């Protein structure tokens, strides 16, 4: 056991993979913080600090759970269906769904901030506290 760990520690490819994972987690963590900030800024000022703390906690717990599930998802490579000669596995479907969700959510948020509807008031309290907290885990789930 110790010998295999020593071999892994001496392998430059393992260190490169670890560095890549660390960089990805930092980038995704920053992405989560930006998303949490956007959502909580829509709340009344007195609710924002508590919503940020709860949101960051939920994002952290969900991120750890998803990292644990990644090993399972990586092995879901058995083709489920084929389209135009390209086989799609459950892993592919999960990654595509997550990417599409992030594109939809980012487009929606940008559209609301750039072109708000004149008949709707987009003040600080445009969403409820529960809605803001409820949306935070979906951001973590979509970017494992």
Automatic annotation (TrEMBL):
User: Keyword annotations for this protein?
Assistant: Membrane, Transmembrane, Transmembrane helix
Q: Which GO terms describe its cellular component?
A: membrane
Cell membrane is among the record's keywords:
no
Q: Mind telling me which residue stretches traverse the membrane in this protein?
A: 12-35, 56-76, 88-104
What name is this protein filed under?
A: Integral membrane protein TerC
Q: Which organism is it from?
A: Methylobacterium symbioticum
Please verify whether the record's keywords include Nucleus. no
**Domain of life, per lineage:** Bacteria
């Amino acid at each position: 056991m110790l010998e295999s760990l020593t071999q892994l520690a001496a392998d430059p490819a393992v260190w490169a993979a670890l560095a890549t994972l660390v960089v990805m987690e930092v980038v995704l963590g920053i992405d989560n913080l930006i998303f949490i900030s956007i959502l909580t800024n829509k709340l009344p000022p007195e609710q924002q600090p508590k919503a940020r703390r709860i949101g960051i906690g939920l994002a952290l717990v969900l991120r750890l759970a998803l990292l644990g599930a990644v090993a399972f998802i990586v092995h879901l490579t058995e083709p489920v269906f084929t389209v135009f000669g390209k086989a799609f596995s459950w892993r592919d479907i999960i990654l595509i769904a997550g990417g599409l969700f992030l594109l939809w959510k980012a487009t929606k948020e940008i559209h609301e901030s750039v072109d708000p509807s004149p008949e709707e008031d987009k003040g600080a309290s445009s969403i409820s506290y529960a809605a803001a907290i409820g949306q935070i885990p979906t951001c973590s789930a979509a970017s494992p």
